[in-house]
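hiii, so i know i said id send this last week but things got crazy w the move. better late than never?? heres the sequnce for the chain we talked about at the cafe, plus the structure i predicted for it. fair warning i was half asleep when i ran it
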Amino acid sequence: MARRSASGRPPGMMDVAAAAGVSHQTVSRVINETDRVAPETRERVLRAIAELGYRRNSVARALVTRKSGIVGVITTTSALYGPSSILLAVELAARRNAGYFTSVAPLEQFTPDAITNALDHFLGLAVEGVVIIAPLAEASDALASVHIPVPVVAVTSAEIGRASGVLAVSEDHFGGARQAVRHLIDLGHRDIVHVSGPKGWYEAAARRSAWRAEMEAAHLPLREIAADGWGAEQGFQAGLALAGGPVPTAVFAANDQLALGVVQAFDRSGLRVPDDVSVVGFDDELSAAFYRPPLTTVRQDFSKLGAYVIRTLMTAIEGEAPSEALVLPTRLVVRASTAPPRP
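okay and structure toks below
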């Protein structure tokens, strides 16, 4: 807990300087980690900082150095594996790769007012840039109508990035889904149902478009069940509907949780995976390899995504930025939930 000065205010840099017996310039050099301070002096200043409980003011620091060391992150309130993994990856990359801390503003809705309020908070902290984790298509119109005076990188589709005028970085959802469907076709499946994600999510739209493209290219019939969520419960309901017939030989689910629900519904209905029906998911969440059977799925490298987001933002802060959206490749991971269809 920080001590109070004689005037009742929190301790400042001058208080640290007085306690350490040095100038405030020396305290500033220690705080900003310059090399022009003798080791014993640095130790004395750090000891005074610890004893007083001094915390530097990011806004005041930004006025002097033009750098606050803070990045703002706007994200959804979703606890889903994808958005939460992206948020963690961005926070870790900001700290480890660039030495920045993050301030996070979770939004229930991506409206202009909600984004403006979050930006007002960030600007009060003198953030140097903003990352927006925007999986919802509604974010496009909202971002396009809001002026953001600092560099912005959005984890969203290239289309949403162009429409809203921000730098976009994303995983290749379309390419990954094509790999999944092509895998099933190559195994010999001809009746491949897609359990699609909810409306309004750009990942769901991309994965659905890829499934359709591969099926049409192979001249195969289109059958789809649209889930109203991303969870195993929605997948379970979709699986029960499919088990009621006609039963497909394969299912491509829009994410691993939907796939898990489908597998459980088939098991409840007496259908075996992959003997009766093959199932593929998307995400490769940490438990996918331990499903029963282990799930064939599409892997997203969230750690690399976070690093690319921060690298792009740091480049933009320095005055340079890529003109094209960055799309990271995804990779099919084949496990025991897929097999050739029965003769």
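btw The CA atoms of residues 48 and 175 lie 56 Å apart. thought thatd interest u
miss u guys!!
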